[in-house]
């Protein structure tokens, strides 16, 4: 079989990357380039990357303030993408933002559509708080695409189970597990400490680090609730990205300020921290905490592990594929109906590692070794192309 031409459809692509799905496409695209002919179609401003074949924005004449949280604008951009990818042998969409584009492109151009499910809208009901009526639109886009795609890529075994449980119309043989990868050169133990000084972090104190967006999904409210129980000799550093809504941002800022007033040693960094600084903060942290209540994969845990840092994380979703409990970190069970036991257990597990730095360091070394062995982007690209070739082979047999 000759090299297929693959169109990657995505909302995010450098320099406009803000979440795990964007990081995934950022690294998958060049890794695929050695195996297939790849072109990227993304939202936003024009890009200088030779991989980018087109950029798209919502239609400017759409009325504003329609109560859809911008979802109809996304659909308008999807229509433009679907029209633009003629000539591709296969389209591969990422997240609901581009899934409808992939579905329509498959119909219009008669090519296979592969979609990667980085999360599932029905498992994120709090998005209604962010999107309003647009949550119904995003759910429609996802359902339409996932039930019709020639193949669905799940980023973890737990995600595959979620897909089959949430969308029973999807045949199991169409769902393939291909994990996220990581750039082990960008995320590695970093000895430099200039970023700590800039952010006001004391290098002489143990550090408990959180990095994530201000959203219900990431469980930052649960970590703040656990903050009173965490050893006060440690500083709690929270790199908090953009909030889902102004109300969520106000709520979490207030909770962080109240915690700081009670215990001290809370460093609140509300910014999109550069990747090099994140790697430095992770490298110097004693413990990295991921209190997510829903996480199809949890790329942030790989990043911390690659920096040689022990992880305390929720035992949910794809995190259990990444963090080996007792070896590269500690997993904490979560029951949404009973959050208080989780809050107490999260603090206890963090304190155990703070109290045993040699054990935390050993977990960090084991985490780095696991990432290098199992989660590199070239390996992810090979497995992704195996999915492509299976789909193209089945289509070819029907021609």
Can you describe this structure?
- With 399 residues, this protein is of the alpha/beta class.
- It folds into 2 domains: 5-181 and 376-397, Rossmann fold (3-Layer(aba) Sandwich); 194-374, Rossmann fold, CATH 3.40.50.
- The chain is built from 15 helices and 13 strands.
- It has helices at residues 20-32, 71-84, 96-109, 127-131, 134-148, 157-166, 194-199, 220-226, 246-263, 275-284, 299-306, 319-322, 339-354, 357-374, 377-397; strands at residues 5-10, 37-43, 52-56, 90-94, 113-117, 151-154, 175-177, 207-214, 235-243, 266-269, 287-290, 310-314, 329-332.
- The strands form 2 sheets. A 7-stranded parallel beta sheet has the order 3-2-1-4-5-6-7, with helices on both faces. A 6-stranded parallel beta sheet has the order 10-9-8-11-12-13, sandwiched between helices.
- Helix 1 crosses helix 15, helix 3 (96-109) crosses helix 5 and helix 11 crosses helix 14 (357-374).
- It starts with a strand and ends with a helix.
Structural features:
single chain; 399 residues; alpha/beta; Rossmann fold; 2 domains; seven-stranded parallel β-sheet; six-stranded parallel β-sheet; 15 helices; globular
CATH class of the largest domain: Alpha Beta
Please identify the structural class as seen in this structure.
alpha/beta
Question: Which regions contain 5 or more consecutive residues with pLDDT less than 50?
Answer: none
Mean pLDDT: 93
CATH topology category name of the largest domain: Rossmann fold
Q: What would CATH call the homologous superfamily of the largest domain?
A: Glycogen Phosphorylase B
Q: Taking Cα atoms only, what radius of gyration do you get, to the nearest Å?
A: 21 Å
Q: Got a strand count?
A: 13
């Amino acid at each position: 079989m000759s090299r297929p031409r693959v169109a990657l459809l995505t909302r995010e692509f450098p320099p406009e990357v803000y979440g795990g799905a964007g990081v995934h496409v950022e690294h998958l695209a060049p890794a695929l380039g050695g195996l297939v002919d790849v072109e990227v179609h993304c939202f936003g401003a024009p890009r200088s990357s030779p991989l980018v074949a087109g950029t798209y924005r919502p239609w400017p004449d759409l009325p504003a303030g329609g109560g859809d949280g911008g979802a109809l604008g996304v659909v308008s951009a999807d229509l433009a993408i679907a029209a633009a990818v003629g000539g591709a042998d296969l389209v591969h969409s990422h997240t609901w933002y581009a899934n409808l584009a992939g579905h329509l492109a498959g119909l219009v151009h008669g090519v296979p559509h592969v979609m990667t499910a980085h999360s599932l809208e029905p498992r994120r009901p709090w998005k209604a708080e962010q999107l309003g009526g647009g949550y119904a639109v995003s759910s429609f886009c996802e359902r339409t695409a996932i039930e019709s795609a020639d193949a669905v890529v799940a980023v973890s075994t737990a995600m595959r189970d979620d897909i089959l449980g949430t969308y029973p119309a999807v045949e199991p043989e169409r769902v393939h597990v291909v994990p996220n990868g990581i750039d082990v050169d960008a995320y590695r133990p970093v000895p430099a400490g200039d970023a700590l000084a800039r952010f006001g972090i004391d290098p002489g104190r143990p550090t408990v680090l959180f990095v994530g967006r201000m959203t219900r999904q990431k469980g930052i409210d649960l970590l703040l609730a656990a903050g009173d129980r965490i050893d006060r000799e440690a500083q709690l550093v929270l790199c908090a990205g953009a909030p889902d809504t102004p109300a969520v941002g106000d709520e979490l800022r207030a909770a962080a300020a109240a915690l700081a007033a009670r215990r001290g040693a809370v460093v609140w960094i509300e910014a999109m921290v550069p990747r090099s600084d994140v790697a430095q903060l992770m490298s110097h942290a004693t413990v990295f905490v991921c209190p997510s209540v829903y996480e199809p994969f949890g790329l942030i845990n790989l990043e911390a592990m690659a920096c040689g840092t022990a992880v305390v994380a929720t035992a949910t979703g794809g995190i259990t594929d990444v963090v080996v409990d007792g070896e590269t970190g500690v997993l904490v069970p979560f029951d949404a109906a009973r959050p208080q036991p989780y809050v107490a257990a999260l603090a206890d597990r963090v304190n155990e590692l703070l109290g045993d730095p040699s054990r935390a360091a050993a977990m960090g070394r084991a985490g780095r070794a696991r990432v290098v062995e199992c989660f590199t982007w070239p390996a992810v690209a090979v497995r992704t192309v195996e999915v492509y070739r299976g789909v193209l082979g089945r289509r070819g047999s029907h021609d």
